[in-house]
């Protein structure tokens, strides 16, 4: 008997929910959402299952968090005995400490909130920094942290990446992703140093002896939003003599204006994993997530 007996998705991520349900070979149900004029949400869930996967990426999270709370309440009331939240992108992970007086530790707040609703969690590249594992976020709940590296490496392998290509990350936080992409392909890897002065004021520097002259460069990062980190990294790679620059991101959060900048910077459209629905999606995650869900807690 399959561990889970159904997948629930939401309208904006219905395709991802259906792909996961197909990989698990279970039914998929898409919630109905209604927004009242004052901004309140109403959630309707068709049918009820005993052990449910709730699939929703938490980019632009505020309304989604409330709607997840409502959905979980419906499923519990209708008899669900186990709820697993699959959130390919998990929100509020960056604020894992008090950086300035008066700020919340948002990671702890949201982790406690969701931990009261769901029994298990699966996320992809959840943007953890000083927190080492998801178990520290969802205390007492089994949690699986997946990497998008395999999907990126598989695409590069399929595209016939050059053996002298260099996988580059913009900063040390990208180092695990960089190594996980480069290692299976037998490629060189390096990371830069990022100085952030504001949300859109970023400078990336690469090692002075970076061996990039005449070699193709593949920049990888977990999240692409404003694009400034990637643009600065690409400029540094070109200044070091890179023959070409290609970009991959696990989570694409950038808008059409940033996409146009990628084109104007000569980088083309980055390729992203399909956890966050986006025009740049090219790297499937359903099988990776399904395999994780099939594993014992």
TrEMBL record:
UniProt keyword DNA repair, yes or no: no
Enzyme superclass (EC): transferase
Domain Ribose-phosphate pyrophosphokinase N-terminal: 17-114
UniProt superkingdom: Bacteria
EC assignment: 2.7.6.1
Keywords in alphabetical order: Nucleotide biosynthesis, Transferase
Gene Ontology molecular function, alphabetical: ribose phosphate diphosphokinase activity
UniProt-listed InterPro entries: Pribosyltran_N (IPR029099), PRTase-like (IPR029057), PRTase_dom (IPR000836), Rib-P_diPkinase (IPR005946)
CDD domains, A to Z: PRTases_typeI
Domain Phosphoribosyltransferase: residue ranges: 150-247
Family stated for the protein in its record: Belongs to the ribose-phosphate pyrophosphokinase family.
Protein's name in the database: Ribose-phosphate diphosphokinase
Organism: Azospirillum argentinense
Origin organism lineage: Bacteria, Pseudomonadati, Pseudomonadota, Alphaproteobacteria, Rhodospirillales
């Amino acid at each position: 008997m399959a561990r889970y007996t159904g997948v629930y998705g939401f309208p904006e991520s219905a395709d991802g929910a259906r792909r996961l349900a197909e990989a698990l070979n279970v039914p998929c149900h898409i919630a109905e959402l209604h927004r009242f004029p004052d901004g309140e949400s109403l959630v309707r869930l068709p049918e009820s299952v005993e052990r449910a996967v709730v699939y929703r990426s938490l980019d632009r999270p505020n309304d989604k968090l409330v709607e997840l709370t409502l959905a979980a309440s419906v499923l519990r009331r209708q008899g669900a005995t186990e709820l697993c939240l699959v959130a390919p992108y998990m929100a509020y992970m960056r604020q894992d400490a008090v950086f300035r007086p008066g700020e919340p530790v948002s990671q702890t707040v949201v982790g406690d909130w969701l931990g009261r609703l769901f029994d298990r969690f699966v996320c992809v590249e959840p943007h953890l920094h000083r927190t080492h594992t998801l178990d520290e976020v969802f205390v007492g709940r089994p949690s699986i942290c997946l990497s998008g590296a395999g999907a990126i490496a598989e695409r590069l392998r399929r595209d016939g990446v050059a053996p002298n290509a260099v996988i580059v990350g913009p900063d040390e936080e990208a180092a695990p992703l960089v190594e996980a992409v480069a290692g299976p392909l037998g490629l060189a890897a390096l990371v830069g140093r990022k100085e952030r002065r504001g949300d859109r004021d970023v400078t990336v520097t690469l090692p002075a002896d970076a061996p990039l002259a005449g070699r193709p460069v593949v920049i990888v990062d977990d999240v692409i939003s404003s694009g400034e980190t990637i643009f600065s990294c690409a400029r540094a790679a070109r200044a070091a003599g890179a023959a070409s620059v290609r970009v991959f991101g696990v989570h694409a959060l950038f808008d059409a204006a940033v996409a146009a900048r990628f084109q104007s910077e000569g980088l083309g459209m980055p390729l992203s994993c399909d956890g966050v629905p986006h025009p740049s999606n090219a790297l499937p995650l359903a099988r990776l997530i399904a395999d994780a869900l099939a594993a014992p807690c």
